[in-house]
Amino acid sequence: MLGFETPKHHQDILRFLVDAYLTPPHRALLLAFRHSGKSSVVGIFAAWALMVRPKTRILVLSAESNLASRMVSHIKHILENHPSCRDLLPSVKKEWGAHKITITRPIGIREPSVICQGVQGNITGLRADMIICDDVEVPNTSNTVQKRQILRTRLRELDFILSPEGTMIYIGTPHTSDTIYRTEI
Fold it and tell me: How far is CA 77 from the centre of its chain?
């Protein structure tokens, strides 16, 4: 619509994410260099997932809640501006903020469509059909052995939040030779 071409590596990333979403065991680890656009592409992918399955509940988890809220804002922007997503916009935007959004979908689903949290935030009681771990490993979560162990322990809790057929996606850039992406994902 804007006359831009989609770079080949973005097309490859999208194909990779869709394959992980549609094919068991529904797990993906996307490592790419800084500023490659991986988070932007994952935001587009999340909006697409909501479009094809409006019941989807997505948890965005990042090292800090403000980083996670940037992903929610990006998803929200896509939903508000892409013509294919118009029917997803609620008439009353009760949950349409920086940390959580709820699209038009069947009633009876308790969780928001998209909610975000920092890796050390409270996720008790949440349920998600897709968990996007976007830059959970950054210098302030991985610069010591103890911090990496705390991060690994915290990430193991996600198995109790993810629905049985849910999708778990990790995206990031390793920040240490003992990266969590090598051993935990």
Answer: 15
